[in-house]
Structures
1.
Amino acid sequence: MNAIIWNVRGVASVATRRHLKKLIQLHQVYLLVILEPFVLRQNFTYTRRYLRFDMGAQNESNKIWFFWNSGTNVTVIIDHPQFLHVRVEDPRLARAIYLTPVYASCDATIRRDLWVGLHHISLDMDDPWLVGGDFNVITQDGERTGHNTHNRGTTAFSDMMLDCGLEDAGFIGNRYTWTNGRVRKRLDRVLINSTAAAFCRQLTVRHLNQTSSDHSPLLLQWVSDDDLGPRPFRFLNVWTKHHDFLAFAS
């Protein structure tokens, strides 16, 4: 099953809409997440029809648009200014998955509300869970290059991943997903919990080439496996960044 998550920086552009349609057809995309559409809510239905999707949902801030077709059943569970938490059921999936598209605030203080929201979801999450989008923050210095590389909130982001039981799904392609011409950063990513890591055994996240946006589209491709089997122990480097790691390890 294929999905695309992309901070398009506006869908008013004809070139952007045409490129989106080509990506959808080329990669046989069943789920599409558009971040920062930068158009009024009344343009939502036109965009959905132009891209040939049957159904759609918007979050309350109008920063996240989510499209799917009638063969897929999507239930919106939480509508939040910085994310949209949904349950996805599809004949191509052996079981339902939970998907949380994210568009995080550039303000580290406001992002705290996002981390709290994801933490609350994680408390009762035993099913496959994928969290993806533009987090507007990096996890380590190696995810940025260029001048003016100071990035607030890195520790809080890593702590959130640890507290929520989420790990980076990795990627194929260019290391950086955003640039302003001088600075490059990996602001866009996909996080998964351990159940999703076992369920989506062949999950890949590709950083596609940048075109009309300063962000790269993320292409998610996976094959579900209902035979989860025993889950191997995984050590995540992000654990070492938690303030209580040394006390817990000792």
2.
Amino acid sequence: MKYFRLLCLILLPLGLTSAWGCRMDPTPHYAYQKQGKGAVYIWDDEYSEEMAAPLSYLPDINFSRLRRLPDLAKTPDKQPSEWYPDIPLTELNTDFIVEGENTTRSYFSYHSDGRHVLWAGKLVRNPPGAPPVHAATFHVFGRFAADKDSLYFDGVRTEANEGVDFATLNEINAGASWHNGYEPEQATVLRDKHYLYLRGHRVENPDSYTITAQKSWDQRGKFTPFYPCINSPYGPWDTLAHTADRMIINGHVLDADVESFSVIRWLPGTLFIYRDKNGVKRFSLREQNAELPRHALDRKDCSAPFNMLENKVTWRKAWNGNSCETEIIPGLDPEQFHLLNGQVAQYQDRLYSVKRTVFGETYLDMITLDDPQVIIDKRFNADKQHGYLLTTSGELVVFNSDGPLVLLDKEVPREREAHTEDGQYRPNWFARDNRYVYVFDGMQLYRYATVWPLYAHIEGQHYQSGYGSALSKTGGSLVTLEGRYFHDVFEPNKNGK
């Protein structure tokens, strides 16, 4: 049986076609195969004509009885059927890797022949002094598992089983960004009616568990063009949380005092530096089953116009293949420097934009906001005397307004629809000031004079159909006393007023 991954055919640099533009390709995977009376674990790459050497030999395994253990995390009501089809437990090639946009991740399952338990091609063995693995009572929930005596995570015993209640056990949803259809935590943080389970370790006070903040490994900014069929995982991301008495990042309990805790520097997927009453501490975020993030490195990345390193921010002045010339932007705390897309970032009350002259020379443009409290969190942002546009081509456009701008649509279109770019879907952002009304379609701004700006309002905004479908239509139209506006189309009032 073949397992598949989505591959993206990027057809346009600025958007998508009305179709998904995806194809299905076989995914290389690991597999258990019979050898003599036992088994071997191999890397099975369907693209290669050569048989790979076994990664491990398992002579004690009864191959004829080897089965994948049922996973309670992948029941039909918890996972979309198109991603997790009903695969028979007799299929022994369900361990696989996914080469994503920002990282490569491995996905493994527990297997058993009734006497032994396997994880990632290795026998699950408990350390001396601990009860032996009990295959008959071994229950699985993603990377977490338990038998009658022990708890496990990624095939390693973590502690004694004090009574996991599998009837109420579930993963705590860490939330998913709109462009990620995959579970972010992979059963890293679980809870039942009594306890939390953090990477297999039991913790009290489950009701006090609260997510404090999240950071994507992709640090190019939320307004960077996205293609929905791109290899997954598009993330992942780090999750900082706390209970009444513990600080937790990605399921790891930090040696930290909750009351005096503060973040100094957070490089997603790489490094976490924090302070509490006992001083400054560093915590490595690198995981054994994940490569370094490709857009959140702790070293110079020539592919990125901005680099937010541990204690400085740089911008790329020149780029030639694998080498580049960078320059430090003085006086910036990298933890407060937030990329909006590949070319634009916000730092407190300033916007930084990497631009080119007509002669092709790169320069850094700095703009001070009228109102230091303005957060650039939409494609159309309003200030006291200016508007700030983030176009779908990645450019920052600043224009003067006649008095304070007022945005007329704070909810629609959402960023998800803004990236869909279906042929029949054209997003709209609307605003007014003391003299004009504005319509922004993601690329072009249209401005119209009106006799009574306060009358301007939006009609027809709605959300219909799903992501990636040409039937998606939102946006509505802008209505004034003069008529109705939609992009560059004007329909005057029928009475001519």
3.
Amino acid sequence: MTKHILKTTPLTLALLMALIFGTSSCKTKKNMAQVTPVEEVEPIEDEVVEKLEEATEEVIEERVPEKILSKEQQLNNYFREVSGAATTAIANGNIDQALNMFSSPDAPVLIMIYNDGANPDYDEPTTISKYLNYLKDTKTKAATVEEVVYDSEGRIKELVLKK
């Protein structure tokens, strides 16, 4: 007899579903009377906006200064650019810029090929002009600056390179 008591009919299922959906509604809804009104915000004055714009422009103008390269670093960069230049015109432009760092295009250049600590060995002496043209023509890896001698004007008058 208990088997027939729990028979489900479409009407019973519809009532059961309505009961489930009706009781599972959102319980966090507040009445409109319980919600606090948002305070009105006063508009920003034109003077404040202008001050902010000026401050922003000042920050933009005060960029982080670029790292200043030493003359030795600049010279090493010129050597790399001359030896790796795509065209002769580019290499010649870099040579002209590099020569501006020297007191004369005939400034002596010594290239250290070996150094055991006390007695370094040097390649045949050359000039900066010949060395830069050698780099342009052969496209070999440039030697790095080891020692620099400056004249009274701050221009390079002698250069020692290390292979």
4.
Amino acid sequence: MGATAGVVWGRAEQQDFRSRVRGTLLGAAVGDALGAPVDRMTGDEIREACGPDGVVDLVAAYGRRGAVTHLTQLALFSVDGLIRAQVRRDTGAWHPPTDLHRAYLRWATTQRDWGPDERRAEDGWLAREEWLYARRDPTRALLMGLGDQRMGTLEAPKNPDAAGPEAVARSAPFGLLVGWEPQLVVQLAVECAAQTHGHPTACLAAGGYAAVVHALLRGEALEGAVQRALALLAARVGHDPVSDALRLALGAVRQGMPGPAVVEELGGGGESAQVLGAAVYCALVAEDVRHGLRLAVNHGGPSAATGVLTGGLLGALHGETALPPGWLVELEGRPTILELADDFAMEMTQGPALHNPAGASPGWLSRYPRA
């Protein structure tokens, strides 16, 4: 697997890219925090718990407002794995799925250990962030898929019947690889999904989501980004469930006022393609980020995953300054997310100044070891 370089980064381009990287990661995390307290409640249960308008603001989950779930945790380890892959490329060891698998195993360790005290230096800085050791209802497919050292592949996937949205929800970072050709972004997302969710629909939904984010980062409007993803998916065997879900989302935009019933019809089944379609719909009809995220979580279904995907899309489209500041200030782990986002943006835009085959910044290698 390779990538194309050739992106020329002026100062304005670097600033815009960093804003969109921050927006993608923070937006997804805010969507997670908004949806987590009502995840998989029915619409009636949400209104009973939160009032007649449902979720309109952050609500406490896991003992605090702004708490995130395992979906955000794993997305952050996706970013960490991508940076580590770039650093390891200097050694001639260039296989990003393996580097992502190592990152996901580092996350899996956080779910077994009490805290970061025993982590090795080669685990890097993210694995030593204490707040990431909170266990936030990870699914059986995730724990089983990462329960041993064997890496799932497309030929021998882990959990071949798992079609839930968890792998899709950690795939936005692949779309941030703006220097890669789109088909390689899709391939990486698909291969990494198979490490925990081996059902073809889950893998292709992850690829489709990454493709949409990638097109947004390259300046496409959202509908155009979805159309580009559909074109990329059309070349892949078994794409119909994902392509159909995206087309249903595009069609639903033109069918009356947006509301929870439409979102539930699109995504209430809870499988990866359905949740992706619901999130695309919410992002397309959103008047602003706040409106889109409220729509994404106020339905009977996987509110956290729908919020994550919707927030990632809106953040990628509009950048960090479009996110509601009142929600950001209460977001769990915000300093870590910002630090990781900025490191990713620095790696993508200025990587050769940080490390190359002839040498590397000691500080950068301490943060992202080649081991």
